[in-house]
Write a structure and sequence with these properties.
heterodimer; A: 249 residues; alpha/beta; Rossmann fold; six-stranded mixed β-sheet; three-stranded antiparallel β-sheet; 9 helices; globular; B: 267 residues; mainly alpha; 0% strand
């Protein structure tokens, strides 16, 4: 299958930073695959996501999304991807349905009114569709961000901590829903989370980052077996404390 | 309808919606221009009452200048505040990763600014006629290109200040409010360019707004604008617009290079 994302020798160094935030990072995300990007705070996850979204210019190396540069070939890349993050909000003054209508126009999918209705139904937002976004609970806002992120039926979905504000039941519902939509559409997902159990259940493959470098890559069970850990939580703590993964023979 | 028009319409709808559900925001459009008109209008009327001689025309110059300055200032503010709004609401990344092109986004902010300016200008014209018997129509057809130049210059300054915001974040906020007032004394809004000292006149000659306000006074005083005023007005307006746009694009590029773009509003 062709790759949705190809990151080659990516380096990004913030001004006056002692070390690069991302250092010679290589990875790919295949079409239809779910990759979990893991690592402690400051590992370079957000910087990597920003490079993929074309929000920053790499210091060195390259990022290709569907074989195109997200910076130079923006108009070819952006209609095929979407993004939802706990740190990025939707305009609080807009009504739920109005907000989706505006984004549908920006993505050129405004004629498919039925699909945005369907998304609101699937994410249980239909009852608050006439409510202002600012009055929604944090969980409802996150679900709305996911609706917006699925509006254009993206081939690549980038999710930054998508279940952080959700209660365990809703987090589970959303995960299942995302997985169902992902299977229906064969969509690739790049997913960051600090919830290791979620990552273990949700992702096909994981990539551990520490101080901008790749420490480990593989399916959750492969990585656990390779490093002799019982859980990703344990592995995460090892990475965060020592910054290294000691191979267990 | 072409895809570009749909996207411009969507962004325009997003900015207009800010006022639909917020009385405070709508109030803000009218409050300062009306206050300026009331205070300066009555001060000038008082000066006219106590002074004699050539101050008779002071009121019409001042009211005409106040309304015209607002075209420039509100034009600048609307463009910059549209962008600030995206940062305040942490929605900027959603816009930046959507397939909306930069020029379409800018066009939507211009449309929004033009709508705000049109509403304020009509309101001030009605108030000026009612309170001071000042007729905006007295300027004649010359008002259209003069106001157009001031609006374009306002958009250009708005793009520049919006670029500063992208590049430097909230640290640039003071500049956004201050830059129009830095230009005001050199634009000769309320006095002829000959009033300025030579060094200030040298700066004033490079601003399209100087020619627009000189033209406005000519139109009010003589009923016509000298033909020699139009070439520098048109040329400098075009240059300022090009420079403002280039600065915005360059500052956006720098914001990408420094990695600040994705983090705006989160620091």
């Amino acid at each position: 299958m062709s790759s949705a994302i190809q990151v080659s020798q990516l380096v990004y160094r913030y001004q006056r930073a002692e070390r690069p935030a991302v250092d010679r990072l290589d990875f790919t995300v295949a079409g239809g695959e779910i990759l979990g990007l893991l690592g402690p705070n400051g590992a370079g996850k957000t910087t990597t996501l920003h490079a993929i979204l074309g929000l920053l210019t790499p210091t060195a190396g390259s990022v290709k999304v569907f074989g195109c540069s997200p910076l130079a070939e923006r108009s070819r890349v952006m209609p095929r991807l979407n993004f939802a993050s706990v740190d990025v909000d939707l305009p609080s003054n807009l009504l739920v349905a109005e907000c989706l209508r505006i984004f549908a126009k920006l993505y050129g999918v405004h004629r498919d009114v039925r699909y945005s209705e369907e998304l609101m139904e699937r994410f249980r937002l239909i009852e608050v569709r006439r409510q202002r976004i600012g009055t929604l609970s944090a969980g409802e806002q996150m679900r709305l961000k996911l609706c917006k992120a699925l509006l254009n039926r993206p081939d690549l979905l980038i999710l930054d901590e998508p279940t952080l504000n959700l209660d365990p039941y809703m987090a589970q519902t959303v995960r299942e829903l995302l997985k169902t939509i992902q299977r229906e559409r064969g969509m690739a997902i790049l997913h960051t989370s600090h919830n290791m159990q979620e990552v273990e259940r949700f992702c096909d493959r994981i990539l551990f980052l520490h101080q901008g470098r790749k420490l480990a890559e593989g399916s959750p069970s492969e990585v656990l077996a390779r490093f002799g850990s019982r859980s990703l939580d344990e592995l995460f703590i090892r990475v965060a404390t020592s910054g290294e993964l000691y191979h267990t023979p | 309808m072409s895809a570009s028009l749909v996207r411009i319409g969507a962004m325009f709808q997003r900015y207009v919606s800010l006022h639909r559900r917020s009385l405070i925001r709508s109030f803000d459009i009218f409050f300062w221009p009306v206050m300026d008109l009331l205070i300066w209008g009555f001060v000038t009327r008082y000066i006219q009452e106590i002074a004699a001689g050539p101050v008779a025309q002071l009121l019409i110059f001042l009211i005409g200048a106040l309304i015209s300055w607002d075209i420039h200032y509100r034009g600048q503010q609307a463009v910059t505040i549209s962008l600030m709004e995206e940062i305040w609401t942490r929605n900027l990344v959603n816009i930046l990763i959507a397939p909306v092109r930069l020029w379409e986004w800018i066009a939507a902010t211009f449309l929004y600014a033009a709508l705000k300016v049109a509403i304020v200008t009509v309101l001030l014209a009605i108030l000026a006629k009612w309170l001071y018997a000042f007729e905006l129509a007295r300027i004649g057809w010359a008002f259209v290109p003069l106001a157009g130049s001031l609006l374009l210059f306002g958009w250009a300054v708005g793009l520049f200040t919006a670029g500063l915001l992208l590049r430097f974040g909230y640290a640039a906020e003071a500049l956004i409010w201050g830059i129009p007032f830095l230009l005001q004394p050199f634009s000769c809004v309320f006095y002829p360019v000959s009033t300025l000292p030579p060094w200030a006149q040298a700066i004033a000659r490079w601003l399209p707004s100087t020619y627009a306000f000189e033209g406005l006074r000519m139109a009010l005083r003589d009923g016509a604008v000298a033909g020699t005023l139009w070439p520098p007005l048109v040329g400098l307006t075009a240059c300022a617009f090009g420079l403002g746009t280039a600065c915005f694009v360059w500052l956006l590029h720098r914001a990408r290079a420094t990695g600040r773009l994705g983090r705006l509003g989160q620091d």
